[in-house]
Amino acid sequence: MIKGSGDARFPWSFAGASGFVRWYSTDGFRYNVHGPHIAEEVLPETPPADPAEAVTSDDYGALRAVLDDAFAQAANGKGAERHGNGQRFEDQPIFTIAAEEGPAFLTGQAKKKITEARGMVERRQFGAAEREYLGAIVYLAARIHVLRQEKGPGA
Predict the structure, then answer these.
(1) What is the per-residue pLDDT for 79?
(2) pTM
C-alpha cells in the first residue's frame, strides 16, 4: 500500500524519491507515483533484445548509416589497424586505458576528436573531419559500454 494513501489497489514497495515517488509493484514493474491514485509505468532503460528489429521503417536510415560507418571504421579501418591487434573490442587499449585513467578518458578523447574535426571542417577537409567524428562516436560507444558495466545487470 502507498504510505498515507490508504488505497489497497497500490500494494507496492517504496524504492526512492526524486520529485515524485518511485514504487516497484509486486510483479517487478516500476512506477512513478504522482499522487494517491496516479501512477505511470516506468519503461525499462535497456534497449530491445535485437535493436535491428526495434524499427522497421526507413525513418532512421541516415542514423543507421552513420553508426554502421563508425562500426566499420573501428572494426575494419583505422581502429582495427592501429589498436586492434586481433583483440576483441573490449580488450583493446580503448578500454584498458579507461580502466587505468577512469571513464572520463573516453569522453575526453571524444571531445578531442570533435575539436579536431571542427578545425578540419573549417579547412574544408571534410573526409578527415568525418573520420574524426566517427572516431568520437566510437569513443562514446565505449563509454556507454563502460557505463552499462558500472550499472550492472538488472539495474
Answers:
(1) 62
(2) 0.62
